[in-house]
Amino acid sequence: MNIYRKEILMFDNDEQVNFCVVLNDEEQYSIWPQERDLPNGWRAEGKTGTRQECLDYIGEVWTDMRPQSLRRWMQENAS
């Protein structure tokens, strides 16, 4: 098991870890441990909390799973 997988499992099992909701340029959501630097291409969305609080928030706000580029293409090519 690589070190990154171990870290993910550690964060997954610890509700005391604070997470932040992150968003990429395609308007896709994820969560990230708050004390870690954000990965390239992602920005903080503004919501922080426990893992479950952040996942619940994403469940409320991410209602269209299509990437932004696909939504844009579909809108531009609608008949």
Automatic annotation (TrEMBL):
A GO CC term assigned to this protein in UniProt: cytosol
UniProt record, GO biological process: siderophore biosynthetic process
Top-level lineage group: Bacteria
Sequence ranges assigned to domain MbtH-like in this UniProt record: 10-60
Pfam families to which the protein is assigned, alphabetical: MbtH
Record protein name field: MbtH-like domain-containing protein
Species per Swiss-Prot/TrEMBL record: Pseudomonas amygdali pv. hibisci
